[in-house]
Amino acid sequence: MMLRTEPFVVNIGPQHPSSHGLFRLRVTLDGEVVKDLELVLGYLHRGIEKLAEGRTYTQNITLTDRLDYLAQMTNNWAYVIAVEKLAGIKVPERAEYLRVIIGEMMRLSSHLCFIGFFLNELGAYFTPLFYMFRDREKIIDLFDMVCGQRLNYNYMRVGGVSHDIPEEFVPALKRLLDEMPRLIDEYEQLLSGNEILLARTKKVGILTKEKAINCSASGPVLRASGVKWDIRKVDPYSVYDRFDFEIPVGSVGDVYDRYWVRVQEMRQSVRILKQALEQLPKGETKAEVPFLLRPPVGDAYGRIEGPKGELGFYLVSDNSIAPYRWHVRPPALLNLTALRELAIGWKLADAIVIFGSLDTILGEVDR
Amino acid sequence: MTVMEQFRNWLAGAMPDWAAYILAFIVGVVAILIFALVMIIVFVYIERRVVGRFQVRLGPNRCGPEGIFQLIADAIKVFGKEDIVPSKGDFWVHFLAPIVTFVPALMIFAVVPFHRGAVFTDLDVGILYVVAISSISVVGIFMAGWGSNNKYSLIAALRAVAQAVSYELPVVLSVVGVILLTGTLSLNKIVEVQTIPLFLLTPLGFLIFFLGTMAEINRSPFDLLEAESEIVAGYQMEYSGMKWVLFYMGEYGHALAASSIITTLFLSGWKGPLLPPFLWFLIKVLIVFFIFMWARATVPRLRVDQLTAFAWKCLLPMALINLVLIAAEVIWFPEMLPWMMVVVNFAVAGVLILLWSRLFALGGGRVEV
Amino acid sequence: MTVALGVEAVARKVAETFPVTTITTDRDALIVPPESLLQVAQYLKDTPGFDFGYLTCLTAVDYTDYFEVVYHLTSLKHNHSLVLKTRCYDREKPTVPSVVSLWQGADLQEREAYDLMGIVFSGHPNLKRLFLWEGFPGYPLRRDYL
Lengths: 367, 369, 146
Prior knowledge:
The complex is a heterotrimer of chains A (367), B (369) and C (146).
Chain A: E1 8-12, E2 24-30, E3 33-40, H1 48-52, H2 60-65, H3 72-87, H4 93-122, H5 127-147, E4 156-157, E5 160-161, H6 169-191, H7 195-201, H8 209-214, H9 220-224, H10 231-234, H11 255-279, E6 298-305, E7 310-317, E8 325-329, H12 331-335, H13 339-343, H14 348-357, H15 362-366
Antiparallel strand pairs in A: 1-2, 2-3, 4-5, 6-7, 7-8
Helix pairs in contact in A: 3-4, 4-5, 4-11, 4-14, 5-6, 6-11
Chain B: H1 3-12, H2 17-54, H3 70-79, H4 91-107, H5 126-134, H6 136-147, H7 151-182, H8 187-193, H9 198-201, H10 203-216, H11 228-231, H12 242-266, H13 277-298, H14 304-332, H15 338-359
Helix pairs in contact in B: 1-2, 2-12, 2-13, 4-6, 4-12, 6-7, 7-10, 7-14, 10-12, 10-14, 12-13, 14-15
Chain C: E1 3-4, H1 7-17, E2 24-25, E3 30-32, H2 37-46, E4 54-63, E5 66-75, E6 80-88, E7 95-97, H3 106-117, E8 120-122
Parallel strand pairs in C: 1-6, 3-6, 7-8
Antiparallel strand pairs in C: 2-3, 4-5, 5-6
């Protein structure tokens, strides 16, 4: 005698403590097992791409802040790289080093947030989140020192950066970098060996190498599946070819590997920051760029390795002060392509954990 | 002669017997209710401060000196909330669920010995009563999940039933170990018999009872009923106002009751040098509760199939082996020195835990859809 | 460094293999008519020497006479990249074949292009609007919207 069961549809709805932003998952459940998954996006769609067509190139930098709102200066950086490619502007060296320093600090801050929220979803009841935010506060205080803002920085400009760093920045950053490795060790000791974490994340949601490449995954998600592809190494932009750092690559591609890759990337960021601080030259921080920039007719695709993945901007210009087409290549959206196949067959709790491990920020997905 | 009986006899000097009986009963009930409710509020306050310190922050410290009036402020706020009832849910099931969940927690205190001879009623089947009563609250949780007409609550309710049923068995088996050692079911006599605390004599039983009770009262790491990140408050989701407060207090009431039972069975209740026994009881209850809070603030949460696997494949066999071991010791070596028994039991417990941690995998893989 | 392949050489090789189609080159992009897009894409993905197995970006641009769908392809093996463009001259119902069968990463990006530009991708398994709701009038990212 077989029990007649019926799958039912649950909305992991727009109001939920663990959606990273505002989105909806329509999950068809059979008991606790996920049978089907559907993404419903668009709750945070503000039409940024259309708005950008009516603003000048410099004004659009403020729009890029609102994309991935946990790692904002890297968005600025990707955009100004695209504009510089389009208009053929060269950036002075001190500006490049400052960009690298700020970019790597941004990566640290974003990965700290990721660890906090990821463990929140696993149920550790906010404790790691508070520890991570304590350290993130120190980083954000440094940003406050540089550009006066704690959230929407708007720091990069076409041809350089907007302000030079004050004198107290470098000693403060050195103090932070001295204690950061010890803190990362402490977090790894408490978290990476925890049996419950290992039982919940090992072998869960495995993304194979071929699938990851086919689904255009990028960033830590791609590297956790075993593909050694980091834009900073394969297509170095700015001055990344002058630093010595490694690329952590996972082996299996499960949720634990995605977490582990990000923790190791934090260590490599600290390494790059130390080298950049030593090599920081003197000079000017912004190239001479006309007030209303008119790039020549053409198109360009500029990209960086952001904390979430490969962030790219595709710009088309028709020699006017505003771009003709302004398109973002969002790493978070493309990492979500594989979510359906990853989550089917697992339990509801695992589906949330898998989604959290892809590190999605809805501002970038919806634009 | 328990304190209740002495009190009753003292009253019987001034009024007929039946009046003395009823008056003593009412006074006893009021005393226990005051104790339980005040302790629940103290527990909530302690939890918020201590978990705050675990999380590198202060707890509530604005309302009154060091925040002791915070809970009163919360209670006043909650009284003013609107009572929302889902229109398509079953009204009576929805209404009665908080009561069915909260009251059994209070009923357990009827048999807990607080002081030398201070037990409300010295039931001869004390432990059986406790085990039976604590199973009723699961029905309340299921009623809450069903009557809310909400899929999340239903998922939570079914998880709760699975969890409670799975963890009853190891808990009861470890209690049987205690009964074999002390030879009585009455909680009062169990405390009086303990010359050394029983957790030294049955370390494995103590651990199994501790973990099993933590799972029964739905505390982290077994708290997937109210797993905030997945099913957002689970069975409590559709409750507001006073009914929700009953659930909340029920959770801490169960924690208090569980701590009291653990203290009584394994930590020798109110016994201790120097300080008055009631104070020792409170101190031990607070220590047990501190360990509950420590686990909640530190450890992530298990998944539901891992939870049931842990109960059936790990705790239950160990509880059976523990029972056989205790029975063997009691029957064949009744004159064994307590200290020898402690050493033997600790050794066996250590070996078993090592063995199980090697062999047992909290797997749960993917189901082919 | 990711080398952007010289389009002239690629255009010649592709024209040899598919003599029927008209391959033109922009300054740094290969332009293919929509009818032969799928075959050229398949050829670029499978031929050893090209191996474009990674679709970096898929966009649509509205030049007022025509719609242009831009594909940025990368090869992880050889570390070179290529830009592939296709132009569709129909304003009413522009149709372009879908490349989801080759690169699954095109799934959500094609839905976005359909949602915001109105370009229909034939062969897409689930062509629904992604950000806006069904029944939204018009396609916002077109130049003649507002």
